[in-house]
Amino acid sequence: MKDFLIIGGGVIGMMTAWQLAEAGHEVTLLERGPCGGEASWAGGGIVSPLYPWRHPAPISQLASWSEGRYPHLTAHLAEATGIDPEFRRQGLLYLDLEDEASAMAWSGRVDKPLSRIDAYAVYAREPRLVDGLEGGLWMPTLGSLRNPRLGQALRARLRALPGVTVREHCRVERLVVERGRVGGVETAAGRFTAGRVILCGGAWTAQFLAPLGIALPVRPVKGQMMVFRTPTVTGSRQWLERVVLRGGRYLIPRADGRVLVGSTLEEAGYDKTPTAEARESLYASAVSMLPALTECEIEHHWSGLRPGAPDGLPFIGEIPGVGGLFVNAGHYRNGLVLAPAATRLLVDELLGRAPILDPAPFRPAARLASAAALAATG
């Protein structure tokens, strides 16, 4: 019997397995598809909430802790695996922001660099942006990374660690719970046992708990994105160098010159089919910020499922009423952003260590009780 069994091979599941293994524990990780193949692959790779001042304080605390770890974490992975997640700290331009005063007030509270810049400074940073901009807000510390490569690097790191078993394309059929305690899972490949089980199944997490009579309010929220292939550039400047955000949509540059545009927010259940309507909307958003993209090929258009949760707060901790069962899910649009802190917070609980920050806002017990009471009165 392994010490820990993790269901879900996204960034959250893989980072959890990595930390537990490095602490000397034996870990089995089960993933229904390829590791890093769902939301961890489908997102954009911005290492910050898009509008951090609009989030509850606990999210900002997790995000701040994580942001400080990503440069070292990605450098370590690149050295250990030979796969570079391409972390870049080139900053973020906010254009036509409606709640600028709130943003500046937040910046002062958390001591985060954010400044108002004029049109000259905007175009000095990104000369190909649409004409007529009067200025914007500039966040110089924002970083981004190539999330599919992060997933590949984490998978390679786990494969090299002793005591870690990774089983891909292994669909979990049900949790095995006896006398109020989880002991493992049943899969098409047989039963896997462990002393403790951790649910990191993203948008699918609630499905594992429903047969136990536990209604975890985590649901799939569809998001569609596209990527443009820009012409090869000679010299140092690509068509876009920094993340740009306008009207809820963003452009993300890659080191090779590609430009991503995202993303939609759709309540469509588990349907991941890309749509013509979203394609047109994303294209319109992209060229409204960077008109030169009309000259570029749309290389790929895809969708993924985010794990939505009330107030955008993930559930992190032990599931009440089932001994040995833990969850780390519901990160919504911020799974990549929060992953280092969210996984560390749970590993601290699992190993009996002092937490990096207050875990109370994320603990499932009180939040599930509150949701059940609300449902009973509603």
From TrEMBL:
Cellular component annotations (GO), alphabetically ordered: cytoplasm
Key word Oxidoreductase present: yes
Annotated pathway: Cofactor biosynthesis; thiamine diphosphate biosynthesis
GO annotation, biological process: thiamine biosynthetic process; thiamine diphosphate biosynthetic process
InterPro entries: FAD-dep_OxRdtase, FAD/NAD-bd_sf, Gly_oxidase_ThiO
Gene Ontology molecular function: flavin adenine dinucleotide binding; glycine oxidase activity
Oxidoreductase keyword on record: yes
Ranges of residues in domain FAD dependent oxidoreductase: 3-348
Enzyme nomenclature, EC number: 1.4.3.19
Broad class of enzyme this protein falls into: oxidoreductase
Top-rank taxon, per record: Bacteria
Keywords on record: Oxidoreductase, Thiamine biosynthesis
UniProt name for this protein: Glycine oxidase ThiO
Source organism of this protein record: Halomonas nitroreducens
